[in-house]
């Protein structure tokens, strides 16, 4: 088999792997040099000439002519008798160049060459893939569901690259079928052996930030800056925004008319409730805004401990805490302060109030827990609430809530 024919045989990998011919030739030279080292012990006296345009190559071995009786190193030396078979005028001390045909290496060596080439091309692909996706970390990426597994969803992009979306990186309400297009951010690229594993996330704060950039032109253009993002994936998020231009209302621009701009983001995140608030360097005002929709009476801040006592009227406490404690938790994460709620109210009423746990013989523990999740842990705190509001904010049926209210009213009437 001639060199060019063998090169063309190897070049089938070029089309399969989308590798350019110049790179392929460089890999081929490396592979052939390894083969020469194995057969001859060294490749120092070999010249490999590659023509990437024609896909051809030549291998030439250089040897010094010695007297027939002085031959010590067959790879680097050639006898005068043998040299004169090539060219009658050769003399001792001159250098002879001979072309080496790849077929001369032997069938087994050629098979080894092919296997080595496959390995080198895979190594090249993996290195390029690793670099490519390393540069995409933090960017939104779309891929198609290829396989759904209990602990991860395997995605494939348009170029056939495999991307892993682990269960813990999925929003709790996510449900995928084969063929679905999935958006997320490239969170990490890990090397598993020599193969890169690309990790996607839909729960990262960065994903929400990038969605704002993608969906809201002013954010993309830099007219509105995102100063902070915190999330409880699938439940609630808070985003602090600011603008250098006083003419731009950053919150209004992000939310849009009747929520038109933010609606697509909410839908992408499984109806995650997103609060957009104006950022400020005034800590008290920032905490007040972060605790929205609750109305804060006053705040006492301890900068050393990074704690803040937030004073609220009784009817505002449950709003500040939010369902499952999500609102106050996110407000604390966004502002960087540990928030302690201090209730304000009628002292006589407070003294007359009763902890909800005192009714455990009449009200089931899980019902008491549901009220506690939204910051209602006393009898009067529940009696002050609207029934429809309690139905909306808890997982309790209206009938259950009415039963609780009846029990509590009986206590105070007695």
UniProtKB/TrEMBL annotation:
Residues 6-125 form the Transcription factor NusA N-terminal domain. The keyword RNA-binding applies. InterPro entries: KH_dom-like_a/b, KH_NusA_2nd, KH_sf_prok-type, NA-bd_OB-fold, NusA_N_sf, TF_NusA, TF_NusA_bacterial, TF_NusA_KH_1st. The keyword Cytoplasm applies. Residues 202-279 form the Transcription factor NusA first KH domain. It is found in: Cytoplasm. Residues 284-346 form the NusA-like second KH domain. GO terms for molecular function: DNA-binding transcription factor activity; RNA binding. GO terms for biological process: DNA-templated transcription termination; transcription antitermination. Belongs to the NusA family. Participates in both transcription termination and antitermination. HAMAP family: NusA_B. This is Transcription termination/antitermination protein NusA. It comes from Flavobacterium macacae.
